[in-house]
């Protein structure tokens, strides 16, 4: 009987660990409340507009020159996204040659990469519409 109890406890703990890991995977990099985003996500919008819009179009929606990032982030992990931004990517096929330059040494991108990702992920998840988002009043360090 003691062995069965120990096995049941071990199985229960493993299941709880799996649920905790799944919850961590589902954690969103943004906060959206009452129609407003957190300051970091808003900052991501600002940084995206400054550094990414010229190729990827307004609101991450793509252009004739670069892909729609709101669609890309539906199948791309955060790590994959950041790897492409840092290291760049080249896709060459018979129809086109697309090159994403590396931004790994661009301070204005690298310092705010988490914010840019949060903004684009909120757009990709359908939480945030097009245009300049309203933001909460406080910066993270203002409590």
Beginning-to-end CA distance, first to last residue:
52 Å
- Counted by DSSP, the helix tally is 7
The CATH homologous superfamily: Cytochrome c-like domain
Strand content: 5-15%
Radius of gyration: 20 Å
Mind describing the biggest β-sheet? 2 strands, antiparallel
- What class would the helix/strand composition place it in? mainly alpha
Q: Which fold name corresponds to the CATH topology?
A: Cytochrome Bc1 Complex, Chain D, domain 2
Strand neighbour order, sheet with most strands: 1-2
The total count of strands amounts to 4
Query: Regions with pLDDT < 50 over 5+ consecutive residues?
Result: 9-14, 18-24
Percent range of helical residues: 40-55%
User: What's the pLDDT, averaged over the residues?
Assistant: 82
SSE order: HEEHHHHEEHH
Tally of structural domains: 1
CATH C-level class: Mainly Alpha
What global shape is seen? globular
Question: Judging by the overall fold, what is the CATH architecture?
Answer: Orthogonal Bundle
């Amino acid at each position: 009987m003691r062995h069965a109890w120990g096995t049941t406890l071990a199985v229960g703990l493993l299941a709880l660990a799996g649920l905790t890991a799944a919850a961590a995977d589902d954690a969103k990099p943004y906060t959206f409340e009452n129609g407003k985003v957190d300051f970091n996500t808003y900052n991501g919008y600002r940084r995206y507009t400054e550094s990414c819009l010229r190729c990827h179009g307004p609101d991450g929606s793509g252009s004739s020159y670069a892909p729609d990032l709101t669609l890309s982030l539906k199948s791309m992990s955060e790590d994959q996204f950041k790897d492409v931004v840092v290291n760049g990517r080249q896709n060459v096929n018979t129809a086109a040659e697309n090159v994403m330059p590396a931004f790994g040494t661009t301070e204005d991108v690298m310092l705010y990469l988490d914010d840019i990702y949060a903004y684009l992920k909120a757009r990709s998840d359908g939480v945030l519409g097009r245009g300049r988002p309203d933001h909460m009043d406080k910066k993270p360090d203002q409590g």
